[in-house]
Specification:
single chain, alpha/beta, Rossmann fold, 6-stranded parallel β-sheet, 16% strand, elongated, binds ligand GMT
């Protein structure tokens, strides 16, 4: 199949999932065309069957707000026609789904029928999308997609709750490629953070308010009161200053490393003992799954899709949003005993196996075939 993959090229989970999906499909012989405004950060090197089409929005003095959606729609028209694509798969509804709808209409006017699939990732529904400034457009684009998927059962429920949806939604969970996460802990690398064998606790996110990174710092302080430990914070974003300030107030700066964005989080995960994700909302929690695939147990909240990924008492523990006391207690329970940690490590890896790409990829391929066949059968009937 020839597939146009529309995505955000950043470190955000939706972009990571779309990029890894594209790479896996290309490895199976499908032709994948990434269409976005920058080279996707997780792309790595180009292999055969992978292509990149850049969406360039030119500056013009009239535009206080550059019209990305219009330029993207035009780019989609161009790539579909020139590359003879079979399908568009857009990740994150805003503004990709409505841009794909627009491209579809333009192409229909020229006698070309291109189906598009929208994958909803989370904040496009739960935070941003349901806002009145987006809602009618998102509802329309979801109802007029040729197929819609969500990354968890929880996000599917949220979509029906917040929007007037008159169609089926398929759940296709996010995935990992286990072989990416079997790195041996690099001794020197581990020592550079924890020179005297301290436990290493890690958090990875975009440091937005929804991630509650300050809770990570509070939980870490409570762990530190019980045992020697180091905290590695990966990522960057609007809450970073608040986080640094709290580290100063709690006196944890000396044991905290804020290391910024990483293209390969698996290297830090390989030296980690525990991962903390105390989010306010989380449709899935890809960062938690990546930790589990590395054999790192997870302490998370029980919000959204997190309980579908992090099984309470098995791959870690889940607690109410904001309950830093309970999260710290569970963290200590796992970390204070070597045998307990080893047990949780093995269980995390096993739980992550349920999201092995080998199980999830066929779900997407079957959906693609279903959608393309649907369009082709309509052509035959016409
Ligand atoms: O919140 C983020 O990390 C970014 C955001 C995105 O769209 O890139 O993540 C959402 O999609 C991820 C991939 O499907 C999910 O794993 C995250 O849970 C989801 N974030 C939220 O729901 C807050």
């Amino acid at each position: 199949m020839k597939i146009g993959m529309v995505l955000y090229p950043t470190f955000g989970g939706s972009g990571v999932v779309a990029t890894e999906l594209g790479k896996a499909l290309a490895a199976k012989g499908h032709e994948i065309h990434f269409i976005t405004y920058n080279q996707p950060v997780r792309l790595g090197s180009f292999t055969s069957n992978l292509f990149y089409h850049e969406v360039n929005v030119s500056e013009y003095p009239l535009f206080d707000y550059p019209p990305y959606e219009t330029v993207l729609a035009s780019k989609l028209v161009d790539v579909v026609k020139f590359e003879k694509l079979d399908l568009l798969h857009v990740h994150y509804a805003i503004p990709h789904a409505s841009a794909a709808y627009m491209a579809k209409q333009i192409l229909a006017d020229q006698g070309i029928d291109i189906p598009f699939i929208t994958t909803l990732h989370g904040t496009d529904i739960t935070l941003v999308g349901k806002d009145a400034s987006f809602e009618p457009t998102i509802t329309f684009a979801i109802n007029h997609s040729d197929a819609v998927t969500t990354v968890s059962e929880s996000l599917k429920r949220d979509t029906f709750e917040h929007f007037d949806i008159k169609r089926e939604i398929d759940v296709i969970p996010n995935f990992i490629c286990p072989s990416h996460y079997v790195l041996k802990p690099e001794k020197d690398f581990r020592n550079s953070f924890a020179p005297t064998g301290e436990r290493i606790i890690t958090h990875i996110s975009n440091f937005r308010a929804v991630k509650r990174v300050t809770d990570v710092v509070e939980i870490f302080k409570k762990i530190l009161d019980k045992m020697p430990a180091k905290l590695i914070l990966v990522g960057d974003g609007p809450e970073r200053q608040k986080v640094e300030q709290l580290c100063r107030e709690l006196g944890t700066c000396g044991d905290t490393h804020i290391i910024g964005k990483l293209k390969k989080p698996e290297e830090v995960l390989a030296i980690s003992d525990l991962f903390i994700l105390p989010s306010e909302a989380e449709s899935f929690g890809l960062a938690a799954l990546e930790a589990m695939a590395s054999g790192v147990p997870v302490i998370s909240t029980n919000t959204g899709g997190l309980p579908e990924v992090n099984k309470n008492g098995i791959s870690g523990f889940t607690h109410e949003v904001g309950d830093v006391e309970a999260m710290a207690k569970s963290a200590v329970e796992i970390l204070e005993d070597d045998d307990e940690l080893t047990r949780f490590r093995a269980q995390s890896r096993k739980q992550a196996e349920k999201f092995n790409i080998d199980l999830i990829l066929p779900m997407y391929i079957n959906l693609y075939k279903r959608v393309i066949e649907g369009v082709n059968s309509k052509k035959v009937l016409a």
